[in-house]
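User:
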Amino acid sequence: MRPQVKEPFGSVSSPLELSEKEWDSTMRTNLTGTWLVSKYVCKYMRDANIRGSIINISSTVAVERVYQPGALAYASSKSGVVTLSKVMSMEFGMYKIRVNSINPGLFKSEITEGLMKKPWLNNYCRRTIPLRTTGTTDPALTSLVRYLIHDSSEYVTGNTFIVDAGHSLPGSSAQTLHLLSFPPDLPLLSSKSQTMADQTVFSNLVPWDELSGKVVMVTGASSGIGWEFCINLAKAGCKIVAAARRVDRLVSLCDKINGANNVVATAVELDVAAKGPAIEAAVKKAWDAFGRIDCLINNAGVRGTVTSPLELSEKEWDSTMRTNLTGTWLVSKYVCKHMRDANIRGSVINISSTVAVDRVYQPGALAYASSKSGVVTLTKIPMMSFIVVNVFFLNSCDLNRVNSINPGMFKSEITEGLWKKPGLYNYGRRTVPLQIPGTPGTTDPALTSLLVSSNSAYLIFPLFHEIHQTVTTADLPFSSKSQTMADETALSKLVPWDELSGKVVMVTGASSGIGREFCLDLAKAGCKIVAAARRVDRLLSLCDEINRAENVGAVAVELDVAAKGPAIEASVKKAWDAFGRIDCLINNAGVRGSVSSPLELSEEEWESTMRTNLTGTWLVSKYVCKHMRDAKIGGSIINIASSVALGRVYQPGALAYSSSKTGVVTLTKVMAMELGMYNIRVNSINPGLFKSEITEGLLKYPGLYTYGRKTIPLKIPGTPGTTDPALTSLVRYLIHDSSQYISGNTFIVDAGHTLPGIPIFSSL
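Assistant: Predicted structure:
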């Protein structure tokens, strides 16, 4: 059993040993406190008609990449802060209030004071942090805070900025990196002589407005965003290498820059879709122009035609991939080789798109979206692996940074046709939280202010600049009842994992809705059921129904998941004793709460929602898993979250519900990491629209059918999803021993609803 080690952020405790008092204290401080302070400040901003900025400090432990053993409450609360930021940004846009979160990595603070003294920390950082440095708040965080306060960030809201020297990149772990060709004597860059925050480097830096001497290469510079980057950066003192295919336009651009700033811009012909040797030659010419390149901006790209995946030609697919993805890699490769050999601290900025960030997929843009998503991954992977093994990004004493910027709707050749759509203004008014009118985003300063500054030396974060631009086809065919996914004739023969005899399953929230259906279905599969809820009369009715058909296979246990720990512990013991074991726990109990603005939501309702959905899920899991551990039987925990927890279907008026369900997803992953040693698997299911008490009011909405037709890819009718078999079959699988290798997963069951990224309020 792991001992508790006191730290300022709470004790380092197993989920099984964490106290209820400490959980509540952590939630109150980190999550509830953040909401309450924001609520009252934003009320003043709104009433005074002030454009404001809310900056929530979260943590990298909240971004699904650096879950920490022993930090269940801390990680769950900080994950809730991220969702709180996104929901508030959506709600407050109408008041011109921006809300973003910053997720720092390892910085010196009271929270990390104990950790900084660990003797193994230096070696850990050397092996797991790509930039091999810990953070100094000034300027690593302060420069970003300045930006988010400055008016140049008025187009940025709902973002999560990760500032951690690459620590949270997928695969950046000791378990992964020790397998690479890692030089054993590679120094940690946070020594006094080489610290990122060396005052000789940073003492005179004024962010963004003075970049004299920086040499910047911009691809796709002959028009649009690339052209504007060049003009703006030249004004800031940069020397410009403008690269593109259309040399005549480049010459015109360079003449314009040089006429005002002497000779500080040169044109280089470059086709990013060319073969490697041609690109290498163009990069050499670019390097030789000024003898160095400090920053590469990979801006060149093509959109392609709007085509169905079934009609898209192989030629167009290859062309799009070659330009947007392969070209970005090849130009980066050859520029970074020069940076490495010249021992230059450099920055690579890849211009991707919001269509690449899982939230604004566009019909007809398969190749474009896939290529831009590839750019985001390409951005992250070199930072995780190539830097550490010195392939082509770093040597032992430089600091190269690779980031992507994902712009929303900006004027460029790619978006030229879209700007002519007559309904664009109305679309933007209904779907863009900051209520930016249907005019192009202003590249300067919305994008240009993010570029090049040396104060970003600690920043490796994807910039998700979210201004959604989805084309909705209103007259797409829609499934009739005879074609529904739950067609009985199609499903009658599909009974997966139909044999679960002997498994004992405890279901919370079993008195109605989805929980009741789980109990009925699992009893048919041979499970023994422990039905738990507050309404005992309904539970008894359910158990009678099961026992009449299946003999004595179900018992009722009174359980209020919002109760205090001792009451929950007693109910769990009664549930365990009913059959002498529990093989699976389904945490299904939950509440939705009222539909309220973050400014009007009451503290009482916030606390009630958190207590039921998040704290209750943890406490029931804690006591059940203790029994599983002590009995050495292993088991499966299934947490029912929601699609609103996925960062893709945030719902106005559901701040507490969304934040609590996001916390459940993080809780699932942290517990999966901690409890694997006891052979306990933990997964979450995130349903879309299913019939339950939570969705009862929504299902009566007259426009639901139209909404579903427009936003659900599988075109399921605007009627509730059928729990059996859509959810029950998945639950059976996660109970069955065939899922013994599955843990820490989030299963989305929503007919594709969360893919388009169209907020619910835009279609109702």
